[in-house]
Design goal:
Blueprint: H1 3-6, H2 10-19, E1 29-32, E2 37-39, E3 53-56, H3 59-64, E4 68-69, H4 83-100, H5 110-116, H6 121-132, H7 136-144, H8 161-179, H9 185-193
Parallel strand pairs: 2-4
Antiparallel strand pairs: 1-2, 1-3
Helix pairs in contact: 4-6, 4-7
């Protein structure tokens, strides 16, 4: 099923906006009638009521209708806007080059690779794992063993903090279900709905954008 079919109704689009679903990126933009602002589906702005929201297939349609781009999520930036994803893709390509050169995991330092990207080693590990589900060095070690490489198509357009927390919560639920098979459906829903400890940074989108 294509993304257009997946988000074919206003209700489906609104649900994607509510969840900040990265799969909706590129499928549509939404505008808020009361503010005159248009956003990408993954924008972290406060969710407007359904009756105040309208959807457009493209940014240009929204502009022609009189809406202006959101300063937080910058929906007018369409190509290569997610520098985190671009970094992960570049690192995977670099790993393939190292593999072809016959280098082992002990022949290079991840900190040096991170330094070339002007981020810390720990930031690089966090970003890579967010998009691939594994750490850079673990991926390279598996690559050397002949495991299937991750392609660009396998990497999501964006992984928002809200989606990541939801994914981690789902993982926690799976562990709970394995250890507590008799848990009721109500208990499972309550576990999923519980907010994680700590405040969530709503201005998440800025870290993805190329200045």
């Amino acid at each position: 099923m294509t993304s257009q079919n997946l988000f074919s109704t206003p209700e489906a689009k609104y649900s994607a906006v509510r969840d900040r679903n990265p799969s909706a990126e590129g499928s549509f933009v939404y505008a808020v009638k009361t503010t005159g602002i248009v956003c990408r589906p993954t924008c972290s702005a406060r969710l407007a009521l359904f009756k105040h929201v309208t959807f457009f297939e493209s940014m240009q349609q929204a502009i022609n209708a009189g809406f202006r781009p959101c300063r937080k999520c910058k929906p007018e930036i369409q190509l290569h806007w997610n520098r985190h994803r671009k970094l992960v893709i570049a690192l995977i390509a670099h790993f393939h080059g190292l593999q072809a050169a016959g280098m082992t995991a002990g022949d290079f330092r991840l900190a040096d690779l991170a330094g070339k990207s002007q981020i810390s080693k720990w930031q690089l590990i966090k970003i890579f794992k967010r998009y691939t589900g594994t750490t850079p060095m673990r991926y390279y070690e598996e690559l050397l063993k002949g495991s299937n490489a991750i392609s660009e198509q396998d990497i999501p357009l964006v992984v928002t903090k809200k989606r990541q927390m939801k994914k981690e919560k789902l993982g926690s639920m799976s562990e709970i279900e394995c250890t507590s098979p008799h848990a009721t459906e109500t208990e499972k829903v309550a576990e999923f709905s519980a907010h994680p400890h700590g405040a969530q940074n709503d201005d998440w989108i800025a870290e993805f954008l190329r200045v």
